[in-house]
């Protein structure tokens, strides 16, 4: 649970599950509200835990791409379950408020 804690990690993993290999700047633009420094920190933690792989391309300027490792892809079921529960919970709250 500690590994996935915080506001951003599940969103980052979900983004990588959805789009596969992604450049840093594309992820920064796509994840609403995250700062570059926070994205970098979260990606480093996920990389240290072998959830995310980082590839530095030999381009000018240097391009960095991130993707889930095979082990990271095993989180797909967890992310799907959380997403499904979230949709169900939202429906529950709206139904209750009616």
UniProtKB/TrEMBL annotation:
Keywords on record: DNA-binding, Transcription, Transcription regulation
UniProt KW Transcription keyword: yes
Protein name: Transcriptional regulator
Record-linked Gene3D superfamilies: Winged helix-like DNA-binding domain superfamily/Winged helix DNA-binding domain
GO MF annotations, alphabetized: DNA binding
Residue ranges of domain HTH hxlR-type in the record: 1-94
